[in-house]
Amino acid sequence: MPRQVDHAARRRLIAEAVCRLADEHGLEGVTLRDVAARAEVSMGAVQRCFRTKEEMLVFALEHIGARIGERVRARLVRSPAQSAGTALGHAVAEVSLLAEEHRAEARVWLAFVAQAAVGEALAGTLRASYAALEEAFARLVEEAAGDAGRAAPLDARREARTLLALADGLTAHVLIGRLTPEEAHGLLHDHLAALWPRVTGPGPDGGNHRPADGT
């Protein structure tokens, strides 16, 4: 009997091959032939999974976005008793891809962001991914602001958008060597600490630091 093919697993295998090639050569170096060779499948197998290269790239972007999102959720689940401010700091740090083990992932993510500037299919996928993160960040911002007892109101949606932009900026600056990961973590911590002095985010080592007011 012919062997049953797990198409979902094969699509993930191909997506991983796309990401490895994008890390090495950028998206311009990703061809169907090279992806097939890296995934150790036939060209026909790639074409049966994806009708076009664009469809393959969109799936690969969704794949890496889902992986980052799952890591954020796992980080929050590991510390269910943490404050909303600390949870937000951990989430933004994960999205910023500052850890050494996520450096390749950061290169691939920014390669997709650059390509999305001239490709509507990728741009639409990125907008959906950022929208989901914005919702999660906004909820944590609102909760953290309440925990801190802020006298002035905080625009949670605007702050969530600012944090997403900060995360991407930190990713880029670390990748080109303008900032060290420790410096990037410090900037993130300082930004969050300025929002609610009694609620802290991750410091340079990913842990918590004393609030800005020393309490």
SSE topology:
Layout: H1 7-25, H2 32-39, H3 43-49, H4 53-78, H5 84-96, H6 103-116, H7 120-148, H8 156-175, H9 181-195
Helix pairs in contact: 1-2, 1-4, 1-6, 2-3, 4-5, 4-7, 5-7, 5-8, 5-9, 6-7, 6-8, 7-8
What's the gist of this structure?
The chain is an all-alpha fold and 215 residues long.
- Apparent shape: elongated
What's the order of the H and E elements? HHHHHHHHH
Q: Provide the residue-averaged pLDDT.
A: 85
Please report the distance between the alpha carbons of the first and last residues: 70 Å
Helix content: over 70%
Percent in strands: under 5%
Rg on CA atoms, Å? 19 Å
Could you characterize the architecture of this molecule?
This protein has 215 residues and is mainly α. Helix content is 70%, strand content 0%. It has 9 helices and no strands. It has helices at 7-25, 32-39, 43-49, 53-78, 84-96, 103-116, 120-148, 156-175, 181-195. The relative contact order is 0.11. Residues 198-215 have low confidence and may be disordered.
Attribute tags:
215 residues, mainly alpha, 9 helices
